[in-house]
Every structure is written in structure tokens, then in C-alpha cells.
């Protein structure tokens, strides 16, 4: 037994969804029925929990701002909308794949499938047991919430995973997964071993692993960002009711 779970001999099987034959999953997060997503908040039992990504919008992104100015507002919005649709579609295909279902590749754009194949290549190089996909996570203490792409045992370590289709792995990304890392422990009383960001773009992928020590330090910065966000928007999130 290691860090709250059992590991037995196992090889990755694409048809296996949760690997229950090899792993005793010892955690469960029951999302309340009164859990509703809005543009800027999650509503949990009538209380507003700010989206993690919304909080991190407070961080200045000069490269994006300069690109926006150079490209022009109208064209930039069109490009960002297309990229958002691309990312959402890819996330759905990954979710389906991790559920053990076959993807009907012929029905999708070539660029989507090329990027999806990058994910498949990465997946096949690792021993993976999926524990959850699109897992809602929230902090009752700090009143924030978000959705983690995946929680899995990868090469013997329980980690949360985040899939990105951006041009790079930007500094604020670690703050996002640090918030999820903390929320998972708050909800389950189990500390993850770390987190992985898998960035896929232009026919190549980049994997970055963060230790739990790095995530704990990043969470401190996330809380500062949250404080500034609330100050700027003149919000008091804690115990705010509709």
C-alpha cells in the first residue's frame, strides 16, 4: 500500500476504462445535484463559487494583448473562437477515448485527428489507470470551483491531468492545477502525488510534471491572485447567496 492506494501488476489495456481489476480506488467525490455552471461561476447549493479560470484572468498576459492589437479585434475574436471550439472538441474526443470507446475519426477535421493522435501516442507510452474524467472539484473553504480533465494513476503515481492546445505551457497553468490539487485533498482527504500538463500543438506534444511540493507553493500564489481578483471586482464570495 502506497499513499492510500494499492498497486498490482498491470499493463495498459485500451478497452479498460477504470482498471478496477487492478486498482482499489479509495476515493469518491459526489457532486451535489444543485451544481450548476454559469459563465463566471459555479452555483453549488445556491452559493457562488468563482471559476478557477475566471480568477486567473486577473493575471496580465502581455503576449496575448499584443497579439490582439496586431491582429485586430474582429479577426482575433474569430481566431480565438475557432481555437476554443477546437479545444473543446479535442477534450471530448480524449474523454471518449479514456472511457474505452472507439473514435469515429473519419467524421472529424484532419487537424483535430492529428492532435488527437498526439494524445494517443502519449497515452500508449505510459501505464495509465483512469479514475475520473471531467471531474468537478471545488473548495468550500475558499469558494472556488473548476473541472479537472482527468485523475489517473500514471506509472504508479496518482496525478491530475490537464490537456492544453495552446502554443505553450504558460506560467498561470500551474496555478490552475494547484487549485485543483488543493480542492481534491479538501474533498477526499487524499493528497495527490502531483500533476501533469500535456500540451499538444503543431504535430508535437510537451509533457510537464509538477510535484506536490511545487503545487503547494503554486497554490499560495493562486490565493494571492484570488485576493486581487476579488478586490478588483469588489466581490465578497464567501457565503454570498443568490
Tell me the Rg in angstroms: 19 Å
As for the CATH topology, it is: Lambda Exonuclease, Chain A
The count of β-strands is 8
Structural class: alpha+beta
Contiguous runs where pLDDT drops below 50 for at least 5 residues: 1-22
How many helical stretches?
6
Average pLDDT level: 85
**What is the number of domains?**
1
The biggest sheet amounts to:
8 strands, mixed
The coarse silhouette is globular
**What is the CATH class name?**
Alpha Beta
Short description:
The chain has helices spanning 52-56, 62-71, 73-98, 110-124, 172-188, 212-232, and strands spanning 35-37, 41-44, 47-51, 128-139, 144-154, 157-164, 194-201, 204-211.
Tell me the layout of helices and strands.
Layout: E1 35-37, E2 41-44, E3 47-51, H1 52-56, H2 62-71, H3 73-98, H4 110-124, E4 128-139, E5 144-154, E6 157-164, H5 172-188, E7 194-201, E8 204-211, H6 212-232
Parallel strand pairs: 3-5, 6-7
Antiparallel strand pairs: 1-2, 2-3, 4-5, 5-6, 7-8
